[in-house]
Amino acid sequence: MELKLNLLERYKLIKLLPTEGNYLTVSIVRKAVDVLSPSPDEHKEFEVRFEKDMTYWNMKGNEQRTIVLDDSAAKLLEQRFAEIEKAGKLEVELIALYEKVYLKK
User: Fold this and answer.
1) How many angstroms separate the first and last alpha carbons of the chain?
2) If DSSP codes are grouped into helix, strand and coil, which group holds residue 55?
3) Is the pLDDT of residue 63 over 90?
4) Residue 74 pLDDT > 80
5) 88, 82, 81: which is closest to 15 by C-alpha?
6) Which distant-in-sequence residues (6+ apart) come within 8 Å of 101 by Cβ?
Protein backbone atom coordinates (compact mmCIF):
# COMPACT_ATOMS: atom_id res chain seq x y z
CA MET A 1 0.00 0.00 0.00
CA GLU A 2 1.39 3.36 -1.04
CA LEU A 3 0.41 6.31 1.14
CA LYS A 4 1.19 10.02 1.11
CA LEU A 5 1.84 10.91 4.76
CA ASN A 6 3.38 13.71 6.74
CA LEU A 7 5.40 13.03 9.87
CA LEU A 8 2.48 13.49 12.29
CA GLU A 9 0.37 11.00 10.32
CA ARG A 10 3.23 8.51 10.36
CA TYR A 11 3.53 8.80 14.14
CA LYS A 12 -0.25 8.40 14.53
CA LEU A 13 -0.18 5.18 12.50
CA ILE A 14 2.65 3.85 14.65
CA LYS A 15 0.54 4.50 17.75
CA LEU A 16 -2.37 2.58 16.19
CA LEU A 17 -0.31 -0.56 15.69
CA PRO A 18 -0.72 -3.31 18.30
CA THR A 19 1.94 -3.41 21.00
CA GLU A 20 1.63 -7.14 21.55
CA GLY A 21 0.50 -10.27 19.77
CA ASN A 22 1.85 -13.49 18.38
CA TYR A 23 5.26 -13.71 16.74
CA LEU A 24 3.92 -12.99 13.25
CA THR A 25 1.96 -9.93 14.37
CA VAL A 26 4.88 -8.48 16.33
CA SER A 27 7.20 -9.08 13.35
CA ILE A 28 4.81 -7.23 11.05
CA VAL A 29 4.55 -4.37 13.56
CA ARG A 30 8.32 -4.09 13.85
CA LYS A 31 8.71 -3.83 10.07
CA ALA A 32 5.87 -1.29 9.84
CA VAL A 33 7.42 0.85 12.56
CA ASP A 34 10.72 0.79 10.66
CA VAL A 35 8.98 1.99 7.50
CA LEU A 36 6.84 4.63 9.23
CA SER A 37 9.56 6.03 11.49
CA PRO A 38 11.68 8.84 10.13
CA SER A 39 15.00 7.69 8.71
CA PRO A 40 18.25 9.11 10.12
CA ASP A 41 18.37 11.49 7.13
CA GLU A 42 14.78 12.61 7.80
CA HIS A 43 15.63 13.14 11.48
CA LYS A 44 18.29 15.60 10.37
CA GLU A 45 16.18 17.17 7.62
CA PHE A 46 13.12 17.59 9.88
CA GLU A 47 15.25 18.53 12.91
CA VAL A 48 13.32 16.01 15.02
CA ARG A 49 13.84 16.47 18.73
CA PHE A 50 12.30 14.96 21.83
CA GLU A 51 11.55 17.02 24.92
CA LYS A 52 9.84 15.39 27.89
CA ASP A 53 6.86 13.53 26.38
CA MET A 54 6.67 15.62 23.21
CA THR A 55 8.21 15.28 19.75
CA TYR A 56 8.98 18.38 17.68
CA TRP A 57 10.08 18.96 14.08
CA ASN A 58 10.42 21.77 11.57
CA MET A 59 7.96 22.66 8.80
CA LYS A 60 9.48 20.13 6.38
CA GLY A 61 7.96 17.40 8.56
CA ASN A 62 4.53 18.65 7.48
CA GLU A 63 5.25 17.79 3.84
CA GLN A 64 3.68 14.58 2.61
CA ARG A 65 6.06 11.84 1.58
CA THR A 66 5.33 8.56 -0.14
CA ILE A 67 5.45 5.66 2.29
CA VAL A 68 5.07 2.08 1.08
CA LEU A 69 3.71 -0.47 3.54
CA ASP A 70 3.76 -4.15 2.68
CA ASP A 71 0.44 -5.98 2.40
CA SER A 72 0.62 -7.53 5.87
CA ALA A 73 1.22 -4.17 7.57
CA ALA A 74 -1.55 -2.55 5.51
CA LYS A 75 -3.94 -5.35 6.49
CA LEU A 76 -3.02 -4.94 10.15
CA LEU A 77 -3.79 -1.22 10.02
CA GLU A 78 -7.03 -1.85 8.14
CA GLN A 79 -8.05 -4.35 10.83
CA ARG A 80 -7.21 -1.85 13.55
CA PHE A 81 -9.35 0.83 11.90
CA ALA A 82 -12.19 -1.68 11.49
CA GLU A 83 -12.01 -2.44 15.23
CA ILE A 84 -12.05 1.26 16.09
CA GLU A 85 -15.00 1.88 13.75
CA LYS A 86 -16.98 -1.10 15.06
CA ALA A 87 -16.44 0.03 18.66
CA GLY A 88 -17.55 3.56 17.77
CA LYS A 89 -14.18 4.93 18.94
CA LEU A 90 -13.01 6.74 15.79
CA GLU A 91 -11.60 10.12 16.84
CA VAL A 92 -11.82 13.28 14.75
CA GLU A 93 -8.01 13.50 14.55
CA LEU A 94 -7.93 10.10 12.83
CA ILE A 95 -10.51 10.79 10.11
CA ALA A 96 -7.96 11.65 7.40
CA LEU A 97 -5.92 8.51 8.15
CA TYR A 98 -9.07 6.40 8.30
CA GLU A 99 -9.96 7.61 4.83
CA LYS A 100 -6.46 7.03 3.46
CA VAL A 101 -5.90 3.60 4.99
CA TYR A 102 -9.33 2.04 5.47
CA LEU A 103 -11.45 3.71 2.80
CA LYS A 104 -8.45 4.06 0.46
CA LYS A 105 -9.37 7.59 -0.63
Assistant:
1) 12
2) strand
3) yes
4) yes
5) 81
6) 1, 3, 13, 74, 77, 78, 81
